[in-house]
Design brief:
This protein folds into three domains: about 1-170 and about 215-250; about 170-205, no CATH class; about 270-345, no CATH class. The chain is about 15% helix and about 45% strand. It is an alpha+beta fold. The strands form two sheets. Strands 1, 2, 3, 4, 5, 6, 7, 8, 9, 10, 11 and 12 form a twelve-stranded mixed β-sheet that branches. It has a two-stranded antiparallel ribbon with strand order 13-14. The protein is elongated, with a radius of gyration of 30 Å. It is built from eight helices and 14 strands. The protein has helices spanning about 85-90, 95, 190-195, 200-205, 290, 300-305, 305-315, 330-345, and strands at about 1-10, 15-30, 40-60, 60-80, 110, 115, 120, 125-140, 145-170, 210-220, 220-235, 240-250, 270-275, 280.
Length: about 350
């Protein structure tokens, strides 16, 4: 771990004074993980710095402006020494080599009663990202010292979630009743006692569950803005009255940025309005010619208009599901999902009953 600091203090003439402060830390660690040649490396670089300028206009009036910045990253990587081990293992490219940012990850393999381990690549480039601007003007008039100012504290967050798991719990080898050549007359107690063997499931390549997180988490800037006006009134030698007014406004950081368009977890991501049953999106998805690399230059929801109308009819009849042909895979499914979102927003189509 390394720590470093620096500072500058400087008078410029008789009316200006500036100072600068800087502090940083570089923390790193590498440790073995749960399997041979699998290691976890953690790097946490952080910086904090600020600058201030004070200017004196005359004996009764002065001004000060300041800026501060805090930034923290949290980069955790669990990876095998052989970065292409996912190919040797035989993992599907769709499962192990389709993560945001072009990363390849051999998903965690969990074998009940056996081994457990895999790769995780989920860095947070902006675990904490804060900017702070502030300024004030002070004026003395008789027994009054007036001060007015304001500021803006801005926060932001960015992270990539690139991980997943495949579980072999033994359920696939846990019940032999009804299988070919199984002994007749197996009692229910014997069936329930046959719990299965996770390693057998693994060797037979029968996973019981799997999940994958492949999301780029971004935020547009938000924060707190403030403005104030105050007076320090020296009424007598022994009595000073302070009073003023202040206004603060919070701005919640909005999800997604333009840089994430077309990626998992992008700005096109929406959310349900449970009061109306509608799905609301922030921004329409790109053209199908962009997100599916096809030739027709029309928005996804226009291409899928017929399917959406069919879906609307089915939902109006209170059917519970809409079946879509299995050829809709990969980016096509994502494009169709965005199309349904856009249609729900523009037509008021309820996506659930």
């Amino acid at each position: 771990m390394y720590n470093y600091t620096g500072r500058i203090d400087q008078h410029i003439g008789t009316k200006d004074f500036i100072f600068f402060r800087y502090a940083g830390i570089q923390w790193s660690q590498t440790a073995p993980s749960s399997l041979p040649t699998l290691f976890t490396s953690t790097e946490i670089p952080a910086q904090q710095y600020g600058v201030s300028w004070m200017h004196v206009f005359n004996p009764t009036m002065s001004m000060q402006v300041q800026y501060g910045r805090t930034h923290v990253e949290d980069n955790v990587l669990t990876q095998f020494n052989n970065h292409d081990l996912w190919k040797t293992y035989g993992c599907s490219a769709d499962m192990c080599n389709s993560f945001v940012g072009g990363a390849a990850v051999l998903l965690t393999q969990t074998v009940t009663g056996g081994f457990n381990g895999g790769e995780v690549n989920s860095p947070s480039s902006n675990l904490s990202s804060i900017h702070e601007w502030s300024g004030s003007v002070m004026k003395t008039i008789g027994n009054h010292q007036l001060q007015a100012g304001g500021g803006w504290d801005e926060v932001n967050y960015t992270a990539e979630l690139r991980q997943g798991s495949v579980v072999f719990s033994g359920a696939s080898t846990g019940n032999f009743s009804g299988n070919p050549n199984s002994p007749a007359g197996i009692a229910s107690a014997q069936v329930s006692a046959q719990s299965g063997f996770g390693l057998a499931d693994f060797l037979l390549d029968y996973p019981n569950s799997e999940n994958k997180r492949n999301v780029l988490l971004t935020e547009r800037p938000g924060g707190i803005g403030s403005a104030y006006l105050q007076d320090s009134w020296k009424m007598t030698r022994n009595l000073t009255v302070n009073y003023g007014i202040r206004y603060d406004r919070s701005v919640i950081p909005a999800y997604g940025t333009e840089a994430s368009v077309g990626l998992q977890g992008s700005i096109e991501t929406g959310d349900f309005d449970f009061n109306t049953g509608q799905y609301i999106i922030q921004q329409l998805p790109p053209l199908c010619s962009v997100c599916m690399h096809l030739a027709f230059p029309v928005p996804c929801f226009q291409q899928m208009f017929g399917l959406l109308q069919a879906a609307r009819s089915c939902m109006a009849a209170k059917t519970t599901s809409v079946r879509v042909s299995t050829w809709l895979t990969g980016s096509t499914t994502r494009c169709l999902s965005a199309a349904v979102s856009a249609s729900a927003m523009t037509t008021g189509l309820p996506l659930s009953r």
